Amino acid sequence: QVQMVESGGGLVQAGDSLRLSCAASGRDLSRYAMGWFRQAPGKERDFVATISMSGFSTYYKDSVKGRFTISRDNSKNTVYLQMNSLKPEDTAVYYCAAGTLGADFYRDYGNHMDYWGKGTLVTVSS
Hints:
Elements: E1 3-7, E2 10-13, E3 18-25, E4 33-39, E5 46-51, E6 58-60, E7 68-73, E8 78-83, E9 92-99, E10 115-116, E11 120-125
Parallel strand pairs: 2-11
Antiparallel strand pairs: 1-3, 3-8, 4-5, 4-9, 5-6, 7-8, 9-10, 9-11
């Protein structure tokens, strides 16, 4: 069983930065594509970014391109999301996830990820 634990969320002001971390245990996650998804109040969970098993390929939601960076450290079984220039519309619960298919696949089919964390809340005030 894989356990994934997100951390790094909090309350920040617009324009600030946060770095989310997701530490996984129970499996070697170098064999999984990893991703970040978010669910804003009253909305469905949505794709934010994914990264391939090797870390060479990354994919982003259009609205976060240039502001967010996903990365991974397979030696630590950890994936990160660096979020810069945060906006109030980035307010959401952020979830990390792992899946055995391609990182590009999960852009549209995130619900097919195999493992999910419980989420960390990011609140951006204006």
